[in-house]
Amino acid sequence: MSNFDTIPVSIKQQLMSTLCEQLEDAIFVLDDNLRYLAVNASYELMIGYKEEFLVGRPLGIYAAEFLSEAEQLILKDISKNLDSHGFYELDFSMINRYGEPIDCHVTYRKIYVEQTAYHVGMLRDMSSVIKDQKQVAHLLNYDQLTGLPNRKVFLSQTSDMLLDSYQEVVLVRLNIDRYRNLASLLGPDGANDLIKNFVEEVEKLKLHNLRSFSHFGGDDFALLFEVKDANMVRHQLDTLMQMCERPFSTDKSHATDANIYYHISVGVSCFPKDDNEVTGLLTKAEKALDYVKQHGGDDIRWYDETIESATAGSLELESELRTATTEGQFVPYYQPKFSLETGAITGFEALVRWQHPTRGLLKPVHFINAIIAHKLSFDLFSQLAIKIVKQLSVWQQQGFHQHVCINADAAEFSHPDFFDMVSTLLTENDVAAHQLHIEVTESSLIQRHDNVKKQLNSLRELGVRLALDDFGTGYASLSYLQEYPFDFIKIDKSFISNIETDRTQHAIVKAILDLAVALDMQVVAEGIETEQQRDVLLDMGCKIGQGYWFSKPVAADVATAMLIKQNCSE
Fold first, then answer.
1. I want to staple 274 with a disulfide (CB 3.0 to 4.6 A). Which of 9, 269, 336, 447 is the partner?
2. 351 with 566: CB under 8 angstroms?
3. pTM, 2 dp
């Protein structure tokens, strides 16, 4: 016999009553007609009514005719299940006496005491649990930076729309151009502000017929339109592009306080014209987006079948380029640099050509963007560097000591083997480091600032000469001259084209020449195409130049013949 069995009945009842009163769960007891007999303190606190008010009242507190239709249905369902099974449970939301919403889980049990039926209910407030569940669901379905639906939600919304819509559905994919560069320049907080500001500006446009605006992450967005005619969306997208003409001003705490302009690439597909399924529409919009990005960005492209052939061509080109890097099909062509005073060849700039097995000799315009896109820049640079240094060795043995410039960009400089490769080539071919010049564009300095600076300093210490290419075309050339160890400044041909008559061009070139003298740097003028241009530059004090007036880029054997001819005439 347990100790509980020896306790008098009155004490048992008092103990049970006390325990019920102290339970956190709300307890209530109903009679066979679902009228209140008793409630504990937790129940009173939860729904806001005292026991004395509730006793004798029906479960819904008020007569059935005063309840909503939904509440009446719930009460009928409770009564039916208790009669049939003696048990019922339900998750539902209710409003308490004070108008506060409560998410509840309630259980009812039918219990007989001395052949009298009672219903004991337990009500548990699930609001905090449901709130947590909702927060988790929000984390899983919405981007935390922008609050926009994520890719999963967007695809679900699109799928639902395709099932229900009798109109045309337009799916738009867009990226912010140069986002990685901007993020690197602005830092993490600035990049986040850039994205949030972009979202705010798009939402301000209140684009007509926009059904969903989604953030896939980073600079990756999607929009969904539902319209009678897909062409109606063209105006909305034009409005979006016009928005990008307004600058985004960064916070002073970021890496720069310059105004930054959004440029976006946009790809568009349409249901039912382009596809009937979500995956097909998404794929085709992304193909159109990729097409825009491959052609310079900052544009809108609607999907059509020509993109498929262009994509196939791109895959074929990638395969051919990889074969070309493996088989050594890239060759340097040498454009001479001349002394403007004497006409003597002082060196060469090496320019890449592709000796294609079926299409002949191709200039960079036909393949250089694909080289960059497929991350083959270092392979191309290595192949050219090997051939150039070997050619320098041959010329050295022939008694010629002209230098050769080779162009390099950030993709080459960022490669961990770049410096060792250059150093080893010079050593193995017994070529003096000062005979190899490397030209760097301003864009390379912007994209990978710290790494480029380290590489340039290492090359300079090795003895390789350095030139800043296209000087004056970027926004920070002067700061680069102060920060990096350049030996040469190359004046861009855009400042030479009308130097004979254009006072502005004349003044800019004169300023560059004076700056070079002050910094103890040499200057090379690019793009000289007339004798008059040569004469003006010579009178201004420029000593070295290159351009088609002197010579086009030529093959190694032709360059050798030019050196031999020059040597014989001296």
1. 269
2. no
3. 0.52
